[in-house]
Amino acid sequence: MNIVLFDSEDSFCSTDERYRHITRILGKSTGDVFFAGRINGPSGDARITHCDKESLSFDFTETQPFVPLYPVKMIIGFPRPIQLRRLLRDMASLGAGEIVLAGTDLGEKSYRLSRLADPDTARKNILDGCIQAGGTAVPELKITASVDEALQAVDAASCTKIVLDVGQAARPLAGMDLSRIEPECPLVLAIGSERGWSERERRVFKDSGYTVCSLGSRILRTETATTAALAVSLGRMGLLEG
Description:
This protein has about 240 residues and is α/β, with parallel strands linked by helices.
């Protein structure tokens, strides 16, 4: 863990993985300090006030202000369940502001029934990504049954809207000018499931004002395309220079 995240609690019981990390991996005990952060709040120093075999308690002192996520909303066609775990972690660690999982016309319907798509399980994987990044801001997750529902779930009235696809009409994502993206006018980036978009979905995106872009002529896995597209977009937004 690069940061220990907590919500409103000020103690962890011995069965909590955070307790095990602090006491066993970090080797901390009463009086010691570890790096922590309040979910969607500031980060800082947590000093252990009590620690025994049953639990530990701590006092938290803010030292760093809250750092918001990047102004990017991801619409992602449901991937294979084993990919979903990694995908959610990567999106959170890269700093996507919102993740919208969507059933697609050509996607495998059973993927949406996987236990990994359960909101509680999905949130844990998202938190793992935040912990990896050392950040406290947690992306919002929405789960939708179709592309149509996903587009309705994303408030895209004043957004820059891009859908990834493979074809001659697609513009290179790496050549897009995304320097004007900001919280008031975020980027919406849509990536399909492993079988791509149906012709109906392509028409829906076109009618909704999405620009068709690509990552090249090679067909990528959903998780690979999603991670690469977000990284390229953040670079074009000038957010990876610090």
